[in-house]
Write a structure and sequence with these properties.
Elements: H1 2-11, H2 13-26, H3 34-61, H4 64-71, H5 77-107, H6 111-139, H7 142-158, H8 160-170, H9 177-185, H10 188-200, H11 207-217, H12 221-246
Helix pairs in contact: 1-5, 2-3, 2-5, 3-5, 3-6, 3-7, 3-10, 5-6, 5-12, 6-7, 6-12, 10-11, 10-12
Length: 249
């Protein structure tokens, strides 16, 4: 399943077209310092990459007829499904790395900066591959699974900052640090953004959520981001395989 899904992703022309959008996005950041260019491109990837990953991976992972056939094979169905998720992720990673390489040429990034950008983009990509696989396993219908995954993207990327800031303002007279910290740690995307800002020491605004993270976590945001991504990855891939194995196909 890993090889089949990887090949399907790589044969899809839309996958390569999406990868070629990355150097076009980079044109907006020409002339900026490497630190600012990297962080700006990462912010753009948070908006661009998740919908692309979901649109390309959910239809592959929610095909009922194909999975009914593969589920009849001797291998455990949950493991087969997880292998399919990995295949999708590998295929998308290959095309995205090509696009990021072209972005590095456009922005004239050094190899070290390009590696840092690639690592940040890869963890974001695999986070959404896990979410796509989990939603497809739960709903097993491409439309419903894609709708649920896009809704989660809206919460984690678009509505997250207003929700956290609203919670902090509404409960400012109460000792809400544990609750607020839990809400912040739920979103590894924001954790990684703030961790990059801290690591690169970029003199730009981090936003209200970034200030909250810095105040609560100090300089350990990168470690917390790595932990959060690991928990999300283990949870989404593990639950996806478990749910798929229990489905009546």
């Amino acid at each position: 399943m890993l090889t089949l899904h990887r090949q399907e992703v790589l044969r899809n022309p839309w996958t390569w077209l999406a990868a070629l959008v990355l150097p076009w996005l980079s044109l907006a950041f020409i002339g900026r310092s490497p630190e600012v260019a990297l962080l700006s491109l990462y912010g753009s990837l948070l908006l661009f990459l998740p919908p692309v990953v979901l649109a390309l991976s959910v239809p592959l992972l929610a095909r009922q007829e194909e999975w009914a056939f593969w589920a009849a094979m001797p291998a455990p169905p949950g493991r087969l499904y997880q292998a399919g998720m990995v295949g999708v992720g590998v295929g998308l990673s290959v095309t995205m790395l090509v696009g990021l390489g072209l972005s590095g040429v456009v922005l004239q990034l050094s190899p070290a900066w390009l590696v840092l950008l690639a690592l940040a983009a890869l963890v974001v990509l695999w986070l959404w591959v896990g979410i796509a696989g989990l939603c497809a396993a739960i709903f097993f219908d491409p439309g419903r699974a894609l709708g649920a995954a896009l809704g989660l993207w809206g919460v984690l990327v678009l509505a997250y900052s207003p929700l956290v800031v609203g919670l902090a303002v509404a409960l400012q007279h109460y000792p809400i640090e544990p609750l607020l910290l839990a809400a912040l740690l739920v979103n590894p995307l924001e954790l990684l953004r703030v961790a990059l800002l801290q690591a690169l020491e970029v003199p730009v605004l981090v936003g209200p959520v970034g200030h909250l993270l810095t105040e609560l976590l100090g300089g350990s945001s990168l470690a917390w981001a790595a932990l959060a991504f690991g928990v999300w990855g283990a949870a989404t891939f593990g639950l996806a395989g478990l749910i798929f194995a229990q489905r009546d196909r």
